[in-house]
Amino acid sequence: MKCYSDPILPREKGRLINGKTNFLGSGSSGLGKGEADYSGRVPVAGLKIGGARPLIIARAPARCRATDLSPSATMPLPAIKKISVRELRPGMYVHDLDCGWMVHPFLRSRFLVSGEKQIQRIIQSGIRELYIDSARGLDAADAPTRTEVESALECDVVEAGRSAATPPRASVDEEIKRARSVLAEANRAIHTLLQDARLGRRVSVEQTEPVVEKIAESVLRNRGALLSLCAIKTKDEYTYLHSVSVCALMMVLCRAVEMDEKSVREAGLGGLLHDVGKMTTPDAILNKPGRLTDEEFALMREHVVAGREILESTPGITPVALTVAAEHHERFDGSGYPHGLKAQAISPMGQLSAIVDVYDAITSDRVYHKGIPAPAALRKLLEWSRMHFNPDSVHIFIKAVGIYPTGSLVLLESGRLAVVVDQSEGSLLEPRVRVVYDTHKASFVQTYDIDLSRGAGGAERILGYEPPGKWSIDPLSYLG
User: Domains plus CATH for the chain?
Assistant: First the structure.
């Protein structure tokens, strides 16, 4: 495999931007708070993690390899390595549990492993792989470093990015106003629906169908407009807007796998209702900012069964919609809940809804978790697809939403920052962007658009994605 990825690290002429760098862009690709390991080691072919299927890593050209961008070449860096839970031993130091979609029953995501009982709790939580810090605990000599893992992922992302995007029927500037109206209507509808469920009233499918139809029409005209709006959620509004997001994302993904329009809309309805069971979960658990106790963790998981029971008694609910709600927490390796279904025992709709649910969850700010940028989330899905998700479906999802989804903030080779406006018909790695900021001058610029697939703008290219908060930039304000 050849990997012709241009450098994705946020640098310009060999210098670090703002004195920082993270692999795969300046946002952390993992869910821990630590920096990536810049060991400078070159990935090797057929690298395996814990006996799982190999990450196929070709000896790629230098442009696709991890680069030593450490502040000082003489300073040893912590050896952050990825291992299977089967390799975890007392005395190892957990650096990152690598389980971003879960509310895990641990006080911290970083800790020294004290004994076998603690390891069993990790396994029982559904965690299959994690990162250790061999500088703070026992080592796993043959385990790959985080840099090696991320190098492999980036090459895989580049391969996926060679695909052309389906051209939108309307530009994001044309659709964004309509999308705002659709989102507002959907938000009102899901508030009413979930409050009815909380009060024990019957859920009305008839009230939701017009909303699902409008969402379906909006994402058909331009998927990026509504999806970029759905990405912005307050912590208090998470449960409601998450339902709208999953609805929209399910319809985008179902169209990408070429389902008929009837199934697409039924999947969207399932997405809108997938978390209705959370209305039976106490608010103190749903909104708890700290660690859940084992008992609270068990209660949280019961929302799936509760949701299925609510929907089974709902007139007009379809089997497709019911399946989305009932299986969105099942995992391909059998580590999910409520039934621990594995691989093809999970329905196609269940497999798709798991991907969509996790993607929206890890990109959203919640009471116990800071959301990560969409490009980082796509790379995490790719990493987790070795265990938790159908790998083929994850690749289709990435192609559907784009390597750099609409609304992403990216760093260009010129040192300017741009907002992704639309996906390109040529390559997902070369979207149409709107330039908004010059990092060299530390100032905003008069905005202008570049279609990177056409070599416009002096052959500009994307070096990586950037967290908008780092630059105090609101990407949505530049759409429409």
Answer: 1-159 (no CATH), 172-401 (1.10.3210.10), 409-478 (no CATH)
